[in-house]
Amino acid sequence: MKLRVLVVFGGVSVEHEVSIISALQAIEVLQVKYDVIPLYIAKTGVMYSDPSFLDIETFQNIDDVLQNKKPVHIIKHEQNGMLVYKKKFALQKIPFDIVFPILHGTNGEDGSFQGFLKTLDVPFAGCDVLGGALGQNKAVMKMVLQDRGLPIVPWFYWEEHQTMEEAFVQKVKRLGYPVIIKPANLGSSVGIHWVEDEEQLLTAMKDAFLYDAVVVIEKAIVHLKEINCSVLGDKTQCKTSVLEEVVKEDEILSFRDKYERGEKGKGMASLKRKIPADISSDMEEEIKQYAVNTFHALQCEGVCRIDFLIDCDGSIYVNEINTIPGSLSCYLWEKSGVSFSKLLDDVLQMGLKKYRISHNKIHSWNTNLLSMYEKGQGKLK
Ligand SMILES: Nc1ncnc2c1ncn2[C@@H]1O[C@H](COP(=O)(O)OP(=O)(O)O)[C@@H](O)[C@H]1O
Ligand SMILES: [Mg+2]
């Protein structure tokens, strides 16, 4: 029997549509070998499943489509999971073997959806709760990278409840203008500002706080090269892809650069880029080593993409990790001799292996503590 793969996409995130593109790209390849069941999380957070979700055109007027659809639920079933929904008076059941989350950003890439699956005890591919959470939160991610001695740009974070008066302004000044302002928990460049001086600072901070209660302030690299490297693996083994150099037209790599300028419907795979990146082989090796160290430091599994900032003096900084990268970085792996189909096989196999290993650990005690509990006394006998 073919492995039944529940591919999950959409989600409550500013990267909702990007996730639909990434998922449909993967589904096209997965369908050759696996039984694919699509699970779409609407912007409201309600989950739906329907064969029409395998077609991108369905999403061009999704609000109308959803009017006739019934929500579905994921439940634990035998060793795996099952989708259930009501059709007339009967309960419909669609069993599956593993979940493949292809969600970007908040409420999906950040460990929250993975936490939901862990609570249900359902196998899933990719990073676990901790990897997803560390990778999504730019402030905590930087703390871990700093602790592991990985190079990052000078930075600090500020919370919404803290006042932005003299102490804050002085702290930014010490960092030195220009600075970059980023909501801690977003992606696709949403809410990010390039700030040249004090005058622009407060407006940028206020805008960033619209998206998150924690904002990261970091020194801007003015003459910048952006290099990305994908890592595929788990705790025991991993490999790196060729490096790409991304080409941007705005000051920062914007949402438009990422998804609107290239070939329509291709998501991250359409961004303008140079593969392999035009850098020395020494720098290439150094970046690959940092990519692997970042992958392990942030407890990652499956396929991730680590993004670097290179200053004109040759300094290398780890900028961020994407734990469910756009287009699953398939365009980098194809140039590294790993087909999209092989990449997806590997990520699924690692997910199954992780589930098996986790099941060999002790998760519950066969005790009957409650037999010792005295009714009405609120205490143990
Ligand atoms: N310190 C920095 N100096 C210069 N440009 C930066 C810096 N940090 C980010 N950028 C620019 O902003 C873009 C988005 O920032 P990033 O941290 O990657 O957030 P996101 O998660 O939204 O992709 C980067 O691709 C880069 O173009
Ligand atoms: Mg980025």
From TrEMBL:
Active site positions, chain numbering: E15, S188, S327
Involved pathway(s): Glycan biosynthesis; Cell wall biogenesis; peptidoglycan biosynthesis
SUPFAM superfamilies per the UniProt record, alphabetical: Glutathione synthetase ATP-binding domain-like (SSF56059), PreATP-grasp domain (SSF52440)
Keyword Nucleotide-binding found: yes
Catalysed reactions, semicolon-separated: 2 D-alanine + ATP = D-alanyl-D-alanine + ADP + phosphate + H(+)
Domain of life the protein comes from: Bacteria
General function of this protein: Cell wall formation.
Protein name: D-alanine--D-alanine ligase
Organism: Amedibacterium intestinale
